Amino acid sequence: MAMRRPFWSILLLLVFCSKALASGGSVAGRVTSKGENDNEGLAGVTILLQGTVRGTTTNTKGEYRLQDVSPGEHVLVFSIVGYRRESRADVLVKEGKETVLDVSLTQAPIQSEQIVVTASKREQSLSEVPVSISVLDATEIQQRNAQTIDDALRYVPGVNITGSQLNIRGSSGYSRGAGSRVLMLLDGVPFIAGDTGELNFESIPAGMVDRIEVVKGASSALYGSNALGGVINVITKPIPDTPETIVRTFAGLYNKPSYVSWDWSDINRYYSGESVSHSFKSGDLGVALYVSRQIDDGYRQNDERRRYNFYVKTKEQYSSSNSLTLNFGLLYQYGGQFLYWRNLDSALIPPALQMSDNVKSIRYYASGLYNGVISDNMLFTAKLLWYHNDWGYETIHQYGRSESISDMINVDAGSTLLLSRTNTMTFGFSGDFDMVSADLFGDHKGGGAALYGQDELQLSDDVTVTLGVRFDFQALGLSKPSGQANPKAAVAYTPAAGTTLRASIGRGFRMPSVAEAFIAGQVSGLSTLPNADLRPERSLSYEVGIAQALTDLATFDVAGFRTDFDDLIEPGIAISNGNSAYIQWRNVTKARVQGFETSFKFGFFDGGLLYSLGYTYVYPEDISTHDLLKYRPRHLLYTSLYGHAGCLTAGADFRFVSRVDRIDNEFVELGIIPDGDQRQDILVTDFRLGADFSSLGLPLSATMNVNNALQRNYVELIGNIMPPRTYVLVLEGRF
Predict the structure, then answer these.
(1) Which candidate, 401, 399, 392, 396, places its Cα nearest to that of 359?
(2) Is 507:220 a contact under the CB 8 Å cutoff?
(3) φ, ψ for residue 241, nearest 5 deg
């Protein structure tokens, strides 16, 4: 506890200092929508004071107030998803006076100029970002009834899910829940398990997510270890200005299996869930509460789940430019464990020794985020997150109970400094500390510290250059600590309105997780051996791309990418001198992943019908063996069609993932997973139909989803059939 007092004291000092420095005038007004809903206030519009770090958002009535603006003429930029970005120049602000500025925004269902924060650790337009980035908003998550973050990401171009492991552009295969080359952030703070280094998606309630920003390619120059393949930033919902209660419930039914031999249950299998959230403000303090329960009978034997989430968020707004946000989340989950099938004829039944396996986890986290405008040209942020992870599994017949307890603490303090109208610097310090006590991994402590800096220089109206570097030092109890400097360079060129050419190059690295280096026990029926000689992974990534906005209703993006890896960490199966098999994580000497990605978005009938398509080709090569890397499909194609008319909405999603070329064939050859080599292309079609009755005066919406509508039987992971056709009815009320 002694470490926290100086940290919070510094934050309070900055608050008082920023208040003391505050002076000038203010700008206030209302943002409305043009068209059918003319004069309707727009909530959540981002307003930025161009040339400064100041900004604010509109409340539920579309009202905003930007205080402490220095006297003179300014440019204000207004943006929100679904509307065309607008700028207002020559806004005159006088000392001690309030300038009134009302703005109407025009709908643009496909937007290339929305504001993102992950690419450069600051707010900027999507068209200005020099790297590939995709944004998934709350509406898409809700329409697909995604219950966890990974489910929501399944239709993002370039992203593939194997089991629960996230793979961006072939950077990752499948490492059995140990380690991740994609870094997950929660409101900008690293959120990974201290023991396994994996992404525990279910710890963050999908119902409290405002949007997810996915940055593709090595991002170690700003975010350090685990960002070697990319970054996903989960941004939670803002707290509305007026009280709001949302009640949501859903019920789903699994279709009967395709084959009689797979039908292990005499009863129908269901899943359901309920959630309640309530948000309110009292003066300058905003509070959001969320609680949910999910019950899943499981379509496979011994795969049932019970999940409970609790979440609370508070935000104290000291002024329009200074705030302190606190988050707390709790997950309790338990259920059976299905690792792989008994054989293809019994594809939904596990081996006999797994029949009584179970897993229980208790995970909770607390985070703090302070945002303070020190001056018109300088923004200071301080972030702290503590993540406690307690999980264990029990194998009744053979191995007994195994448990892992870990704590991860991460702190980041940084600033954005506008040196001039054409020069923006981002710099800061970050540190992390992990404590692990586990039956499988042993007792270990690790951590590190880093300094990072990035300079964005606008050379002309058309060209912006970004240069950055991060110096990292990490220690995990391996043979020796590791440090590395990770530089980055990028350029964005805008030859014409709506056209952006980009190119980037950057180094990345990742420290092995505790699980990869020290696991010793039984996994999937095989012994595992530790490898304390594991070296950090290192990479060099390149990308070139072009983004083109054809009209307000048509955009496309094309990118070519390549990443060269040194000491890539992959699990492998080997035979000991006693002819027994074991799993061990080892360094692959050289590897390369290269390919290209395209995405298109089109709108018809003034945005009443939207179509999107994303295609990614990946060639993942293990250069040291002249073979392909495991669990990396070469072709990903996602396409969606969405339409709305009046209170009705309808949508269809299609996902194609090509057959994986290489898997762990040793599992099949050793007889551990019978028929484990059975796999094929993944072709999944989902449909949804919804109705929103708010326009009729009823605060109610309903959605019907049919997932895997064509009952395609497929595997993402060896020996694991994915869900059959499912029917889901969702009801939501807002009060």
Answers:
(1) 392
(2) yes
(3) -80, -25
CB atoms within 10 A of CB 168: 25
Cα 75 off chain centre by: 32
| Contact (Cβ atoms closer than 8 angstroms) between residue 228 and residue 509 | yes
Q: What confidence tens digit (pLDDT) does each residue in 527-572 have?
A: 788 888 888 888 999 999 999 888 778 889 999 999 999 998 888 8
CB contact at 8 A, 208 and 149: no
CA-closest candidate to residue 264, choices 163, 333, 343: 343
Q: Could you tell me which of 86, 505, 430 has the C-alpha nearest to residue 225?
A: 430
Class for the domain spanning 4-107: mainly beta
Percent of the chain topping pLDDT 90: 41
Question: Structure pTM?
Answer: 0.88
User: Are the C-beta atoms of residues 531 and 585 closer than 8 Å to each other?
Assistant: yes
Point out which residues pair with 430 in neighbouring strands: 412, 450
Question: pLDDT (tens digit, 9 = 90+) per residue, 205-235?
Answer: 888 898 898 988 877 777 877 888 888 999 9
Per domain, the residue ranges of the chain are 4-107, 116-734
In contact, 558 and 598? CB cutoff 8 Å: yes
Task: Mention every residue, 6+ apart, whose C-beta is less than 8 A from residue 361.
Answer: 331, 332, 333, 334, 389, 390, 391, 392
**CATH fold for the domain made of 116-734:** Maltoporin; Chain A (2.40.170)
Rounded CA separation 556/167 (Å): 23
